[in-house]
Amino acid sequence: MKRSLKILKSTVSFLLTVFIIVTVAFVVQAQLTGGKAQVLDHEILTVLSGSMEPDIETGSVIAIETVDQARDYEVGDVITYHMPNDPETYVTHRVIDVQPNEGEIQYATQGDNNRTPDLELVEATQIIGHYNGMSVPYAGYVFDYVQSDQGIVLMLMVPGFLLLISSFIQVWKIVRDTEYQEVTAMGTDNETTG
Questions:
Q1: Which of 3, 50, 95, 121 has the most CB atoms less than 10 A away?
Q2: What is its EC number (predicted)?
Q3: In the beta sheet, which residues pair with residue 65?
Q4: What is the Cα–Cα distance from 38 to 162, expressed in whole angstroms?
């Protein structure tokens, strides 16, 4: 039983440590790159609306395979693009039509949960990448929180607090074991002299 409990504690401790390290790494990277966390060639984004539900839930974290140059997308592909007048606002919607226009390709898009197509066609230059199906439901709420000022402070305090608690426990165990050994040694000395 003690062995199982020890393995469980070690596993939980390891997973918590990995979670904290990964979260801190994402936050630091996002802060250094202006809020854009990336893993290899995938940009990590938080979905803020329900326009793509049920395929992509509100609050999910999704991975967008970024593109350096324009490529041809087909009807049914899910793309992420920035708004023409606001490069900081991203939209992830499905391509519903591909339209050539003066040698350029434009895409008509629509959210799966929207009744009507998006009003503006998407130029190839607006496209950041495409959604490859990888999402983590509700993780976006955590991701956005840890990027806030309050979240950053918390992410710095929690590991420090856990380290402090762990140190206190270790010191307490050493003191307890030392006292036990002293009491045992005194008991043994009394038995041999008596």
A1: 95
A2: 3.4.21.89
A3: 42, 130
A4: 28
Residue pair 95/79 in contact (Cβ under 8 Å)? The answer is yes
Instruction: Locate 88 and state its tokens.
Output: 């900081």
CB 108 within 8 A of CB 123: no
Determine which helix (DSSP H) or strand (DSSP E) holds 142, and give its type and residue range.
Answer: helix 139-147
For 37, other C-beta atoms within 10 Å of its C-beta total 21
What interhelical angle do 2-32 and 139-147 show, nearest 10? 60
Domains of the chain by range and CATH? 36-147 (2.10.109.10)
Output the six-digit token pair for 175.
């003191």
18 burial via Cβ count (<10 Å: 0-12, 13-18, 19+): exposed
**Residue 111's pLDDT is what?**
94
Q: Give the rounded distance of the alpha carbon of 179 from its chain centre.
A: 45
Q: What average pLDDT score do residues 162-186 get?
A: 79
Q: Within a 10 A sphere around the Cβ of 62, how many other Cβ atoms?
A: 24
Give the residue-averaged pLDDT of 137-146.
80
Nearest residue to 132 (alpha-carbon basis) of 66, 81, 33, 65: 65
Q: Is the pLDDT of residue 26 over 80?
A: no
Radius of gyration of the chain (CA): 27
Residue 148: HSE in the Cβ half-sphere, 13 Å Cα cutoff = 9
